[in-house]
Design goal:
- This protein is α/β, with parallel strands linked by helices.
- It contains nine helices and seven strands.
- It has one domain: NAD(P)-binding Rossmann-like Domain (Rossmann fold, 3-Layer(aba) Sandwich), CATH 3.40.50.720.
- The protein starts with 8 loop residues before the first strand and ends with a strand.
- It catalyses: a secondary alcohol + NAD(+) = a ketone + NADH + H(+); a primary alcohol + NAD(+) = an aldehyde + NADH + H(+).
- One of its GO terms (biological process) is behavioral response to ethanol.
């Protein structure tokens, strides 16, 4: 069912970097009511710029690290719900690509996403009297077509796709729908700066960039189109 973003309240985890930032800018072209950005990046100049894109939208930045305990995430979400009264969409976009940092890659890319999702169910789950909601999880095409030189990263993205597919099938019970948006190779700093697992491939970035790529702006535009299409259980592949 198509979704109008007009007057919606959106919480965007990691909405200030790379694909996240360009998606944020695209979202602001719609007449949201509130956009709450949760991110480790603290960039007042970017926040000030975002606020000028569409004065109809209230943009709020709150510092947040997805690796905090789930109890801290629940406290943060409570302050957001208390202020906004309702949240319509949660976008989980935190991610790193560095197979040298195995535990942190899993913590940011998967555990943090699961915890943030679990935390918001306290407020949305219809079994608790909640109104339901929409979860958009940012995966990657590596979730179903692994880059074998970075198996840790690829594994976390496969986990995101499967976790989200399960959420979608639970929608009749929880009232919460879910889908993944899976970018292909983007021309971002993420691609240029990562390490392969056990240094099995010293030139992964160069090999990846030899394939067709897209700009994060193009990806952000398609990202928002996917949100508006709002198909529970969809696995969107964004690589054009």
């Amino acid at each position: 069912m198509a979704l109008s973003l007009t007057n919606k309240n959106v919480v965007f985890v990691a909405g200030l970097g790379g694909i996240g930032l360009d998606t944020t800018k695209e979202l602001l072209k719609r007449d949201l009511k509130n956009l709450v950005i949760l991110d480790r990046i603290d960039n007042p100049d970017v926040i000030a710029e975002l606020k000028t894109i569409n004065p109809k939208v209230t943009v709020t930045f709150i510092p947040y690290d997805v690796t905090v305990p789930i109890t801290e995430t629940k406290k943060l979400l409570k302050t957001i719900f208390d202020k906004l009264k309702t949240v319509d969409i949660l976008i989980n976009g935190a991610g790193i690509l560095d197979d040298h940092q195995i535990e942190r890659t899993i913590a940011v890319n998967y555990t943090g996403l699961v915890n943030t999702t679990t935390a918001i169910l306290d407020f949305w789950d219809k079994r608790k009297g909640g109104p339901g909601g929409i979860i958009c999880n940012i995966g990657s095409v590596t979730g179903f077509n692994a880059i074998y030189q970075v198996p840790v990263y690829s594994g976390t993205k496969a986990a995101v796709v499967n976790f989200t597919s399960s959420l979608a099938k639970l929608a009749p019970i929880t009232g919460v729908t879910a889908y993944t948006v899976n970018p292909g190779i983007n021309r971002t700093n993420l691609v240029h700066k990562f390490n392969s697992w056990l240094d099995v491939e010293p030139q992964v970035a160069e090999k990846l960039l030899a394939h067709p790529t897209q700009s994060s702006q193009a990806c952000g535009e398609n990202f928002v189109k996917a949100i508006e299409l709002n198909q529970n259980g969809a696995i969107w592949k964004l690589d054009r």
